[in-house]
DNA sequence: TTTAGTTCGTTCCATTACCGAACTAATTAC
DNA sequence: GTAATTAGTTCGGTAATGGAACGAACTAAA
């Protein structure tokens, strides 16, 4: 019955892997110092890991006093995961390998026919991305899909996703799983964005944070103590339903959200239309404000006030150390500066407001973080409680430039 | 160097303790089945625990087929913690023992001189509570103090606590530590309330929840995944600063909070005064509403709407499975029913709204939960990551009636 | 009352995992 | 070349655990 290694061994193995992942090529002696385990144990574990193909010798040290040491590193392509950012207009896919490199990504317009067509498109993109990087497809262990809606873990579908047709009835998880032959993890794209910024974006080291995405609508990914807040029904971060901006008790507010009505694309354009008497798209309004258009300036300022109030709401409830703004309009300086100005006027504690550093790749990076954590855990922690490999810090991870 | 037991032993020991704490008097054979460890290991660990005075034989099984088994149980008074609920008008103290019994409590009016006088009062109450229950004071390992403000872990003081004078400058933690001679843990009282309701109140089994306290002010304790959200500056749950109710950009709102201005005692009384032209205290207004007073009814309904919006805000951000209302006015049926009516009108997802079951003892119970978890962890988990003893579920724990 | 069947708990032994000391090997500083 | 230093292996010794075997204690039924 007991052919599995003892938990203490699994624990040690996990520590060794963490040291190797974090500290790049490293000698066994250094690992011993870092983990506190004896040299003998490290050699034993290293031998086993090398036999199983997870690590390999990579060179020798030199220049220091004393005998030169053999250094070991992760075999990057021993396993990999796919990460997909599914948007209403574009799909991005990338491969991340065991060494936590996020490899070049592939982008395409989303298949407009929706449903199963999109599932097949995603599967094809994953295969292409793997091939593109010379990675054998069999090494793929799982796929993380960021979706613009609320994943329903019960039925594997995605509810509240008006931008991708057919995903509210299709069992996406099962369909894509059958297509790719690996485990699938569905996650809200804004949640992934929060995780991405936390890993290697503008919120590294801040374990309590919120990422606010401002685009077609308004949404947030909230992290507490380094963990994502998903909520009881996976619906955490639905800022559009914050009860201000418009009367929250009107029927329309119940449908699209009181705040969404004024901070969503539609709401912003309507407000400009009402004041200026002419229509413009949102980037157009922002540009007009830059040129001194009074109506546009008013709309911009109102929007910033609403966003500031949304930030204040989050701060009043979870009190994050930093709030990162992102999304197509959330990162624009004219908005961010005004939010930075208004927030201290309606919330008394100081809160740092940052801008997304990863831009359009943020969800892909977040998906990689989730997938790699899951991969490391299943491969090396073996279900031992408390045994976890944290992802290497930002400076170790390089984002390879898109090769397409 | 290595006189500490191996982590695998500590891990097993932890599992054995958890089984004994959870399953009351239990035989070693049953523990073996439950933990998956061998009978031999259990006997070894049990012998050690018995030698160290943590567990004891408590009887024998009989009636079943086969040899009768010796059953073991926790030695309840092998160690205990103190839990204190410090309010503006009253101080409560109770002792909780290793077997998770919350023993009879002691209540007194808060020493009005504040500061060090209150610290001494707390220390005296702890000694009295211990004596009251025939527990040797030396068995006390730590004290958890629920305070009506924001604990500052840096300086051991309590900021934002207008109801207890002198605590904003005094190093309460150090002073009380010196007085009692044990480790002190300061925590916001509303946070403790959330933990209390989660442990043995109306939110057992709901790991994502919020407890809203409505009394002098409005505040919340938020739990995500079974863990309390403290926030970056320990200021999570400051609902008074939610940006609606009054104009959040007014100077007054920045000082006391936009929502606090209308949902706090002062705000409710002012609103009634304005409409009815006469003054009443808040319970009086509620009673008047029950008798059909139109002005009181209007104030009550407005208040319920504000609370509903506060609940909606929490739901939009952390999406808890249940929201528990408590505090001096939060538990009143006329308010709760109206909130239950208004919430679905401003928030689209269903949210369960409950009422505090523990009433005025909720913070004491929450403090006990925190203290006992800490106690179990330090005594038996010995700093091993992942080794944790969860508190026994509600049905195992009996709340002894107050003996005073 | 006896006996069969069952469960409890102990003893004994093999295995795994680990540490530490002693030792060999390789490299630099002088 | 020699001393100093660091890397890595070999060789006991110990802690933790599982499993088999066995005696002890108990119930139920013959």
UniProtKB/TrEMBL annotation, chains A, B:
PANTHER family: BIFUNCTIONAL UDP-N-ACETYLGLUCOSAMINE 2-EPIMERASE_N-ACETYLMANNOSAMINE KINASE (PTHR18964:SF149), ROK (REPRESSOR, ORF, KINASE) FAMILY (PTHR18964). CDD domains: ASKHA_ATPase_ROK. This is ROK family protein. Belongs to the ROK (NagC/XylR) family. InterPro entries: ATPase_NBD, ROK, WH-like_DNA-bd_sf, WH_DNA-bd_sf.
């Amino acid at each position: 019955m007991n052919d599995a290694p003892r938990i203490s061994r699994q624990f040690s193995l996990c520590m060794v892997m963490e040291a190797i992942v974090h500290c790049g090529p490293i000698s066994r002696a250094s690992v011993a110092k870092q983990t506190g385990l004896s040299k003998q144990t490290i050699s034993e574990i290293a031998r086993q890991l090398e036999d199983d193909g997870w690590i390999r010798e990579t060179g020798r040290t030199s220049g220091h006093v004393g005998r030169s040491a053999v250094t070991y590193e992760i075999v990057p392509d021993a396993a990999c995961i796919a990460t997909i950012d599914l948007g209403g207009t574009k799909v991005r896919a990338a491969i991340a390998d065991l060494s936590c490199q996020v490899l070049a990504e592939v982008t395409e317009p989303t298949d407009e026919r929706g449903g199963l067509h999109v599932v097949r498109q995603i599967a094809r993109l994953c295969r292409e991305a793997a091939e593109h990087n010379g990675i054998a497809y069999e090494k793929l262990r799982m796929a993380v899909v960021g979706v613009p809606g609320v994943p329903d873990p019960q039925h594997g579908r995605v509810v509240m996703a008006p931008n991708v047709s057919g995903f509210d009835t299709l069992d996406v998880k099962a369909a894509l799983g059958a297509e790719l032959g690996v485990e699938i993890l569905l996650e809200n794209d804004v949640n992934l964005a929060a995780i991405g910024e936390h890993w290697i974006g503008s919120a590294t080291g801040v374990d309590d944070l919120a990422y606010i995405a401002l685009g077609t609508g308004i949404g947030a990914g909230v992290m507490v103590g380094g963990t994502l807040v998903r909520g009881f029904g996976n619906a955490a971060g639905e800022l559009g339903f914050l009860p201000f901006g418009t009367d929250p008790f009107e029927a329309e507010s119940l449908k699209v959200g009181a705040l969404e009505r004024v901070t969503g694309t539609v709401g912003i354009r309507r407000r400009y239309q009402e004041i200026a008497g002419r229509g413009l798209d949102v980037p157009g309004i922002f540009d007009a404000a830059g040129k001194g258009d009074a109506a546009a300036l008013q709309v911009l300022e109102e929007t910033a006030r609403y966003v500031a109030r949304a930030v204040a709401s989050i701060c009043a409830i979870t009190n994050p150390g930093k709030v990162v703004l992102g999304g197509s309009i959330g990162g624009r300086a004219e908005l961010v500066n005004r939010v930075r100005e208004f927030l201290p006027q309606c919330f008394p504690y100081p809160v740092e407001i940052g801008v997304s550093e990863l831009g359009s790749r943020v969800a892909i990076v977040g998906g990689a973080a989730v997938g790699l954590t899951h991969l490391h855990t299943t491969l090396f922690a073996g279900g031992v409680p408390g045994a976890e490999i944290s992802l290497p810090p930002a400076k170790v991870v390089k984002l390879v430039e898109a090769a397409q």
